[in-house]
Amino acid sequence: MTTIAYRDGVMVGDGRLCADTHILTDRYVKVRDCGKFIVGLAGNAESFEAVWKWYQNGCKVKSKPKGNYETLAYEKSTGKLHTYEIKGKSCVVLPSDEPAAIGAGADYARVAMGCGKSAVEAVKLAERFNSDTGGESTVIICNAPVKKKARTK
User: Fold this and answer.
1) CB half-sphere exposure, 33, CA atoms < 13 A
2) Phi, psi of 95 (to 5 degrees)
3) What is the rounded radius of gyration, in angstroms, for the C-alpha atoms of the chain?
4) Are the CB atoms for 115 and 101 separated by under 8 Å?
5) In the sheet that 138-141 helps form, which strands lie side by side, from edge to edge?
6) What is the mean pLDDT of residues 76-89?
7) Quick one: which of 8, 34, 58, 136 has the most CB atoms within 10 Å?
8) Measured between alpha carbons, how far is 65 from 63 in angstroms, rounded to an integer?
């Protein structure tokens, strides 16, 4: 698994990719800019490329990729934060002004952010307590939502 954390417009993902108990690499990029979304993925990496393409193509519900994964996605145009878990087939829109985390180290990351730590610090803390979290982190600053102009008379 992994740890993806979001706080204050910053999404962070660790770089560890495992197969069973073996570490395959500590440099896998799990947080990517997919056009309209910044997407972090946790779960079975076999699905990741298909999921990133799904987001790039507008994430139509009927064409969602199969697999065992969960996503944390920041929608650039609205500033909304979405979490999607394919196992449970649920999609939840979260307040983007509150911290969020997914993956095996999510509980550690949530506690860290609840104590005032940044998303980067939260992932680093999760590394200490979760062996599936580690390696080089990817940090992406999410774009602020586009503000609508106020109408003037």
Assistant:
1) 8
2) -65, 125
3) 15
4) no
5) 100-103, 3-7, 10-13, 138-141
6) 77
7) 34
8) 6
Pairing, β 37-43 against β 22-25: unpaired
Write out pLDDT tens, residues 121-130: 999 999 999 9
Report yes or no: 15 and 28 within 8 Å, Cβ to Cβ.
yes
CA 97 to chain CA mean position, Å:
15
User: To 10 degrees, what angle do helices 106-114 and 119-129 make?
Assistant: 130
Specify the amino acid at residue 141. Answer: I
- Say which amino acid occupies 99: P
Cα–Cα nearest to 142, from 95, 83, 90, 73: 73
Alpha-carbon gap, residue 126 to 121, rounded angstroms: 9
Q: Rounded distance, CA 95 to CA 102, Å? A: 15
| Tokens 């307040």 belong to residue | 95
Q: Is 67 left (phi over 0), alpha (psi -120 to 50) or beta?
A: left
DSSP string across 101-149:
EEETTHHHHHHHHHTT--HHHHHHHHHHH-TT--S--EEEEPPPPPPPP
